[in-house]
Predict the 3D structure of the following.
Amino acid sequence: MRVKPWLENFSISNFEKNAGGPEYYLMLLLISTSMKVFDNDKVIPFISSIALLVLTYLITIEITKKRFAGIVSILIVLQSNTFLTYDTSITYENFWILFYLLSLYTIYKKWPLSPISFILSLFSKSLTAIFLPMTFFFIYRSSISRKKKIFITISYGIIIIIGIAVLVEYLGILDGGTPALNPHQFWRAFNAISYQLRYDGLVLVSLLPLTVGLFIASRKGIAHADSIMVLIAGMFLSQPLLAAFGYTYSEPYRFIALIIFFAMGVGTILSKKV
């Protein structure tokens, strides 16, 4: 297990010493805390999974204004084999998607906390950096004041500027050059999605009908139907895009985010039927 050696060498005050690197800093901190407080490294990851269910319920209610939709979204996540497989995992924990989902939810509730939550997701797993376009679209479609949208967009713009500076200075991206795009790897990873989701039959079979339903709903003016489509599409394409630039894509746990967005979409569609 790769996390065990990282935990043994984990240092709160020294980013450089951590074997996992800065992108895993928060994950290592939380798991280390779980071990010290509960004498079990799986307790906080399990609490995180419970919090993820609660947050899925709350954000679905926020965008649909129906409790029924929130309950449906929770039930869909709970039946997911992928979610149940990784709900107590310390190697493939859910901190990253929890903080990312929190960043979307706080856009409505406490917008200054949204960029903070997003930064926390980056320190759990840098994968969430590619979710920024989805976040901007969610902000654009949110039913909040124009003034708040501008402030949130500016705050995320600052995150982008800082992120670019870190890539240039800390990682030395200019010295190493930019990775080349490999279309073959993109399509290879794209074809692997059905295999990775083979144990989540409901998602695999219903994803296309749901997308069509959300498209029709968005045409009828149903709030956030198009936002959920963008979230699903972004998560669906994230692994092929990573593979195209030479990163590992064979990681089924990453589809927990897709399952969350799928559940929110089903809740949105069904909320208009009751």
Notes: The CA atoms of residues 69 and 267 lie 4 Å apart. The chain has a mean pLDDT of 83.
